[in-house]
Amino acid sequence: MLKPSYISALMLGVILSGCTSQANTAPVSSETAAPLATKDNATNATQSATAASARASELADFARWQQKFRQRAIKSGIEPLIFDRAFKSVTLDQQVIKLDGSQAEFTRQIWEYLDTATSKSRVTTGKEKWQQLRTTLAAIESRYHVDAKVVMAIWGMETNYGSYRGNTNTIAGLATLAFEGRRREFAESELIGALKILQAGDVSPEKMRGSWAGAMGHTQFMPTSYLRYAQDFNNDGKRDIWSEDPTDALASTAAYLAHFGWQQGAPWGVEIKLPANFDYALAEQSNVKPTAYWRQLGVSTITGQPLPDYGDAAILVPAGAQGPVFAIFKNFNVIRRYNNATSYAMAVGHLADKLEGGGEFSAAWPRTERALSRSEKVQLQRVLTANGFNTQGADGVIGPNTHSAIRAYQQANGQVADGYASASLLEQLTKK
Ligand SMILES: [Ca+2]
């Protein structure tokens, strides 16, 4: 939770593949299989020696970083003994370096992501777990005023209801991220948070485990979020989000959502129908308007009823005019405080609804559209700009500027101007 968006994007695939920290168990070492010829053996030996010396120097650098960070931690109030015990068996985690350095080139379409995130088995398991924990969940709901279904859905999304909570030593993972330096500030402050948790005695260093990027326990709290929001709901004196018993973790999740303004009983969003002449420029998440405004434009529910009033709403068009369209409310943004990705918020909301007996969306997804790779998105931005439809840069991230450029192109070419970045659009533009 509270992961920066680049982690979220990366975690998307990782979480859904069913293994939070064991995403790839292949060794990082680049040394290859035994060569056939003696000459190659000699080369290989030289390479191994070079690699070994590089590793030794890296470990020396890590030790130097650790010494320096120890001073900072002590200044932040961490007792030397706590620090030394936490770091006793910590070494540089090569797997963490590898995962942090990989940038997702291939992404999945939103419907593929939702299919996995809200699969039949995830819904069935969720319903069973909800039944088993119904008394606890009802007590959590009544204390925090957060719907049990959304707490269940976050638990399902983050760790498949606790079945893969991650096995990376949190201190080692965060220390590696801090040492590696790309996000030192972030990792060091989370690391100090983790040390404060150890100092408070809620968990032992051995049991403080989670995903490679520092998220811990059943609902994957980052250490600083834990310090602010974790709850001891079963009153045993420990805020234990790591144990088999998910009670504290689920209450902590509810407390987190409550803090960011969860509205009990309100939906994350509803599927809607847009009027024929709808201006898709209005469909940006930042364009938040009162329900009356949307009603006046002719926006209705998918079944043609007046749009329900849950306060301000924005219009979400995740797959263009050909796919399902939604009005999203305050709770959608509350879910985004947990993980700031539109796809994640949709998945949590949709899963929560399904856990309560809801079904699939009414409109069909444009399933024949394949996903654009990151480099294709860059290419699309370049070719749009070259054709006079300026995307204000080509970073491979499809945002409001690219939507606007696509709409202008579509308008100029007599197409429905929904701003959707599709493979067929790229094809049109590159054929010209
Ligand atoms: Ca407890």
UniProtKB/TrEMBL annotation:
Residue ranges occupied by any Transglycosylase SLT domain in the UniProt entry: 62-353
Keyword Heme: no
Domain Peptidoglycan binding-like: 378-429
Pfam families: PG_binding_1, SLT_2
Gene3D superfamilies tied to this protein: 1.10.530.10, Bacterial muramidase, PGBD-like superfamily/PGBD
Highest taxon of source: Bacteria
UniProt xrefs under CDD domains: Slt35-like (cd13399)
GO molecular function terms attached to this record: peptidoglycan lytic transglycosylase activity
Keyword ATP-binding: no
PROSITE patterns, sorted: PROKAR_LIPOPROTEIN
UniProtKB keywords: Signal
GO process annotations (BP): peptidoglycan catabolic process
NCBIfam families: MltB_2
PANTHER family recorded: LYTIC MUREIN TRANSGLYCOSYLASE, MEMBRANE-BOUND LYTIC MUREIN TRANSGLYCOSYLASE B
Protein name, UniProt field: Murein transglycosylase
Organism: Oceanisphaera avium
